[in-house]
Amino acid sequence: MLKYSRKGTLVLIGGAEDRKYEKKILNHIIRINNPSKVAVFPTASSYPGEVYETYRRAFRDLGAEEVFCVDIRYRDEADRPRYLKMINEADLIFFTGGDQERLVEILQGSRIIKRVRYRYNHGATVAGTSAGASALGDPMVTNGNDTGGFKKGAIRISNGFGFLKRLVVDTHFLARGRIPRLAQILSSGRSRQAIGLDEDTAVAVHPDRTCEVVGNSMVTVMSSYTLHYSSYYQASTDDLVGMDRIHISFLAPGMKYSLPKRRIMGGDGGNERRARLDPERVKAHTALRYCANDDDES
Prior knowledge:
By secondary structure, the protein is α/β, with parallel strands linked by helices. It has helices at about 25-35, 50-60, 80-90, 100-105, 110-120, 130-135, 180-190, 280-295; strands at about 10-15, 35-40, 65-70, 90-95, 125-130, 135-140, 140-145, 155-160, 165, 165-170, 195, 200-205, 210-215, 220-225, 230, 245, 245-250, 255-260, 265. The chain has eight helices and 19 strands.
């Protein structure tokens, strides 16, 4: 077990990450603190043995000496000494996909999740994919229609583990059109920030809450700090919810984002730098807009 004096890194993965070939995301996780021992929680999965074996091979290929299987199926198993020992020894703790509601129901309030939090607060990396990522925020999406996200009552949330407070995490994001359901949660006031993760894409949240995007697609960050209006509490169940001034950012791989400052960071070593518009490009864009308006009137 490595010893650190500061909080570790939290890695949220949108699901369907490459585990066989380049393993870009898993490799990035390993390089954060070069763990010799990894603890994998397949608790959310209905096929824990198969899922664990996939990650065991992947992490061993990437240099881990030992990969523990923390296969807790029932709540009364959560505090068994052998599982606590695995968490004490691991420097990377990984939650697989499956059913996030099941995962939280079994582990919430247990000694083992408190031990995971302790290890995270003392330098261990904690990562989750799909359901495992969703469970690390608070609140947590437990159910919701992808096509009815603006309908009040179509989205159900509960408490997550809360490694990120007042921040909801959603996965398989743009592919399943999930912007509306995070917008509804933000407009209700039950969360102030939200992260939507595409498949085979991850965000590493560092101790200063700076986020770094890794993978092959996009990360969407939304917040309600600029929210000017929401009809959520006037709407009846199944009514469509309207809102104004939800803040949204789309992050490509390699980009960094500050959750406290709610903006993209510059690429020069992480120092903040606002993008500046080229005046000539602004003029050209304005000219094109006027031309388009003229065409509409003809």
